[in-house]
Design a protein that fits this description.
The complex is a heterotrimer.
Chain A: E1 4-11, H1 22-36, E2 44-48, H2 52-55, H3 61-68, E3 75-79, H4 85-98, E4 104-111, H5 119-126, H6 141-156, H7 164-174, H8 188-193, E5 196-198, E6 201-202, E7 212-220, E8 233-242, H9 257-270, E9 279-281, H10 287-296, H11 305-310, H12 327-331, H13 338-351, E10 364-371, E11 376-384
Parallel strand pairs in A: 2-3, 2-4, 9-10
Antiparallel strand pairs in A: 1-7, 1-8, 4-7, 5-6, 8-11, 10-11
Helix pairs in contact in A: 4-13
Chain B: E1 19-27, E2 31-34, H1 35-42, E3 53-56, H2 63-78, E4 85-91, H3 102-109, E5 117-121, H4 127-140, E6 146-154, H5 162-166, E7 169-178, E8 184-196, E9 199-200, E10 209-210, H6 216-235, E11 244-247, H7 253-261, H8 266-269, H9 275-278, H10 285-294, E12 302-306, E13 311-321, H11 325-329, H12 335-340, E14 343-344, H13 347-353
Parallel strand pairs in B: 2-14, 4-5, 4-6, 11-12
Antiparallel strand pairs in B: 1-7, 1-8, 2-3, 6-7, 8-13, 9-10, 12-13
Helix pairs in contact in B: 2-3
Chain C: H1 3-8, H2 10-15, E1 17-20, E2 27-28, E3 44-47, E4 51-60, E5 73-80, E6 85-90, E7 103-113, E8 121-129
The chains are: A alpha/beta, B alpha/beta, C mainly beta.
């Protein structure tokens, strides 16, 4: 199979972008990615977005964003898989090139949360769950994550501050990322004092909603321009899987099966084992998701994922650095853009361009894009190519 | 001119085929507002209190949800196939919809649809017993094997009004069936109505109006005593023939006084006198009083029940317990169990729960 | 307004009507055409008892539109006695603390308005601590 590489990356600052519209936000990221790729022209645009229909009353983002990026005429569609929309779009971009029908693809993830405010945003987020049997009961994704955390703590006897390490690590890393929503480290006391949003889940166990857009240019390795200046990053492996949409329908709630399958596929295609992964960009929309993702990816045994955060293993100098640019927790949960941000952050690490957050000489990065509690999981292994 | 209130045995409402109660069930919501809380807010704590406390429905409750639970309790005691119910009738003055029946939803929830009658009844506080009399007719005529009659209310009282102390929430469901299957046979009933404007609520008004002291003598006492006296005369009974009695109970005083006027002791009404601890449950009041009796009654006990509905009228019932009651009593939650499940709330919480806060 | 959508689900909402798989006897809620246990077609109606226990729970303070007037409220994953788990609000808690394993029973309550106060009232299952009987 042809080697497919990430030749261009672009991201906007994540956060409350009151003055910037959905289309302009996306264009800012697209423009950067096109510039970064050294003049490659995409023939297809794949958009990852989760809630523009609810939040901005805007469907049909493919047409809109191609138009506003000055790319009218190219193929363009939206991929939606809740929080995994970005991962789904990236996978689609890869498949388009791998099929031979497209040479160069533009993948953009964009989310604009702040076009609505208050309870309407909660209602929009709830639409990613089982509408008839979860959302109908007034459930929210935060409460759904709290179900998992409550049960996890109960079954594995996790201490009160057991999950603190996820937020502490994310915020420490966010301090070194100029695109992050929160760029300030937090203290353990801050976590301990934080208000319970959905008991036992506190304010620091949930990622903040953030507007943001991130874009990638994918192409075949042989199409890379001569004067291209960055180290090349290839997509070495990929996997995608689903689990029940409703959390209550699972036989085993405390196992992210889809994440496990998707990651196993990605590692297998890349021909590596979990030990060869140098950094892991997990989908820490909630700290319990991070713990379960670490277990699903094979970095921790069942019920022990939280300990990797508690003992420092997920730090930049730890055994398996995670959320190296702040993760969803500190960079912000950018909805359908999250998977693309993850890919960019991993690419920056592999390029050696992560600044003060640089992990030492990484060769392989794992990213995992989740929709809901891993109802959809899309995993990728990115590799620094020689 | 003949005396229209002259009573003879053929004036009793007595069906051709003997009927009785084959199932009953009560419901009282969890929350309680002490009357002293209302006094604290509106009178600085001055003045006598008509009851101790009243039952208040939670934010997610209304006459439909409460009727469903009472109906399920009645079904649990009756142990009949819901498809054999040929009527589900709900009497209330607080139906959640102005137009759209409560009864169809209740019937659907207990699995009685679609081969059934369903209707909502309105006659102030006697809408439930009105439905019960009709159920006797439907079953007693042979048209139906079983019919369900419910009296349920989430009563309204204007903030600060005398009614606010007492306007409670609760009620009961009854299944009428053949006498031979009954846990209590209904020998007969008698209804007494006149046009008496003691209490009313006009269309689109949120709270009812009442005639203050006019609600007493010419309304409550007149109609209950006339109905009870007529029923007992026609049945050849006197107060001492009844082990128990249940009267409509708008406050603690009225049912005790009317019991005395009719020759009943306080002991005879004790198990049915629930108003001090749940308030006036309007269309549910006499019917839930009867559940208090049925929960503890023994075979052979004779019971008089008399409702009162403003506007005005009373339905009186002559009931005798059979030996089937003892097994049925424990098949569903008892009324006193609902009453002892109690969470006290303050006036502010009450105002929120009852939608008395101006939100827009 | 979503009248038809709610109306279609009334049996599930009011009475916990699900299915039992004729092939493997697996109890299914909500009803679906394919048995999640054995993968065969399952269409035999089965009414659940409404008894179960708390598998997990939490309290929601920031509620979605349509539910905000009832906040805060407690939600739970309830493991039904017959096997399946469902998500539902808990009600009538009073001051009773909730814990994993607590026995609960189904009641029918108002869930929300369809739209605003002019729309139909949607009723459905919630669970409360088991009462005496």
């Amino acid at each position: 199979m042809k080697e497919i590489v990430i030749s261009g990356i672009g991201q906007t600052a994540a956060g409350e972008q009151w003055e910037i519209s959905l289309r302009d936000l996306a264009y800012q990221a697209i423009k950067q990615a096109l510039d970064d790729s050294g003049g490659l022209k995409p023939q297809a645009l794949f958009v990852g977005n989760m809630l523009s229909l609810n939040l901005s009353n805007q469907a049909h983002l493919g047409g809109l964003l191609a138009d506003y990026a000055g790319l009218t005429g190219i193929e363009a569609v939206t991929l939606e898989a809740a929080g995994a929309s970005g991962g789904a779009a990236l996978r689609q971009g890869y498949l388009a090139i791998a099929s031979g029908l497209v040479d160069t693809a533009l993948v953009v993830g964009v989310e604009k949360f702040t076009d609505k405010i208050g309870t309407d945003v909660e209602a929009a987020l709830a639409s990613g769950m089982d509408s008839d049997y979860e959302a109908m009961q007034g459930l929210t994704p935060v409460a759904q994550a709290a179900f998992l955390m409550q049960r996890y703590i109960y079954e594995y006897k996790v201490p009160a501050d057991g999950f603190a390490g996820f937020a502490l690590t994310a915020h420490a890393n966010g301090a070194g990322n100029k695109f992050a929503m929160y760029q300030k480290a937090i203290k353990p006391e801050t976590y301990a004092r934080a208000e319970k949003v959905c008991d036992p889940l506190n304010l620091f166990d949930a990622a903040p909603l953030a507007d943001g857009a991130a874009a990638l240019i994918l192409t075949r390795r042989d199409l890379i321009p001569q004067k291209y200046s960055h180290p090349l990053i290839s997509i070495a492996g990929m996997g995608s899987s689903t689990d029940t949409l409703a959390l209550h329908d699972r036989q085993d709630l405390l196992s992210f099966q889809a994440a496990k399958i998707a990651t196993t596929q990605a590692l297998k295609r890349a021909g590596i084992s979990p030990e060869q992964i140098d950094l892991f960009e997990y989908h820490d929309a909630f700290s319990i998701y991070a713990a379960l993702s670490l277990e699903a990816a094979g970095f921790a045994k069942r019920g022990l994922g939280w300990q990797l955060a508690a003992d420092g293993s997920i730090g930049l100098k730890g055994k398996i650095p995670c959320a190296t640019m702040g993760g969803l927790k500190a960079r912000g949960f950018t909805g359908g853009a999250s998977g693309i941000y993850q890919a960019i952050e991993a690419a920056l690490q592999l390029r050696g361009s992560a600044g003060r957050n640089q992990v030492e000489n990484p060769q392989h990065a794992l990213i995992q894009s989740l929709g809901g509690p891993a109802s959809t999981a899309v995993s990728f292994v990115l590799k620094k190519t020689s | 001119m003949t005396n229209s209130s002259e009573t003879t045995s053929n004036t009793l409402l007595k069906p051709n085929k003997p009927v009785g109660i084959v199932g009953y069930g009560a419901y009282v919501p969890r929350y309680r507002l002490p009357a002293r809380e209302v006094a604290r807010v509106w009178t600085g704590g001055k003045g006598g209190l008509p009851i101790k406390e009243k039952a208040v429905p939670g934010l997610d409750e209304d006459v439909i949800s409460m009727s469903i639970e009472a109906a399920r309790n009645a079904m649990a005691r009756a142990q009949i196939n819901p498809m054999e119910l040929r009527a589900v009738w709900v009497g209330s003055e607080s139906h959640p919809y102005a137009v759209k029946p409560s009864s169809t939803l209740v019937a659907e929830a207990i699995g009685a649809v679609p081969n059934t009658q369903a209707a909502d009844w309105e006659f102030a506080c006697k809408a439930g017993t009105e439905a019960l009399v009709a159920a006797m007719g439907l079953v007693g005529s042979g048209m139906a094997r079983y019919a369900m009659a419910i009296g349920m209310d989430t009563a309204q009282g204007k903030p600060g009004d005398a009614l606010e102390y007492t306007a409670g929430a609760g009620g009961a469901a009854y299944i009428v069936g053949p006498a031979e299957e009954s846990m209590a046979v209904i020998n007969s009933s008698y209804s007494y109505v006149t046009d008496t404007p003691d209490f009313w609520r006009r269309e689109n008004q949120k709270y009812p109006e009442h005639g203050m002291r006019f609600t007493g003598e010419p309304a409550y006492f007149k109609h209950i005593t006339e109905a009870a006296t007529a029923l007992m005369q026609a049945s050849g009974t006197k107060a001492s023939d009844y082990k128990w009695a249940a009267f409509h109970q708008p406050n603690s005083k009225f049912p005790q006084r009317v019991a005395g006027m009719l020759g009943f002791s306080l002991e005879q009404i004790a198990p049915s006198l629930l108003v001090p601890v749940i308030g006036n449950t309007y269309a549910g009041a006499a019917l839930i009083g009867l559940t208090g009796i049925l929960d503890i009654a023994q075979p052979g006990d004779r019971i008089l029940m008399v409702s009162f509905g403003s506007g005005a009228g009373s339905d009186a019932f002559d009931i005798v317990v059979t030996d089937k009651l003892l097994d049925a009593q424990g098949r569903a939650t008892k009324t006193q169990e609902y009453i002892s499940r109690r969470t006290e709330i303050d006036y502010a919480t009450y105002a929120r729960y009852r939608g008395k806060l101006q939100m827009k | 307004m979503e009248i038809a959508r709610h109306w279609r689900l009334k049996q599930q909402r009011y009475g916990l009507v699900g299915e039992v798989c004729p092939h493997c006897d697996y109890k299914i809620f909500p009803p679906r055409d394919i048995c999640p246990n054995c993968g065969n077609e399952a269409r035999t109606q089965y009414t659940f008892s409404g008894k179960g226990e708390i598998f997990s729970y939490t309290t929601i303070y920031e509620a979605p539109t349509g539910y905000d007037s009832n906040a805060p409220y407690t939600v739970a994953i309830v493991k039904l006695t017959e096997g399946p788990m469902i998500t539902a609000q808990l009600t009538d808690l009073g001051e009773q603390p909730v814990e994993i394993g607590m026995p609960v029973e189904m009641v029918t309550r108002k869930i929300r308005n369809d739209g605003d106060e002019r729309g139909v009232i949607v009723y459905g299952y919630k669970f409360r601590p088991v009462m005496g009987a």
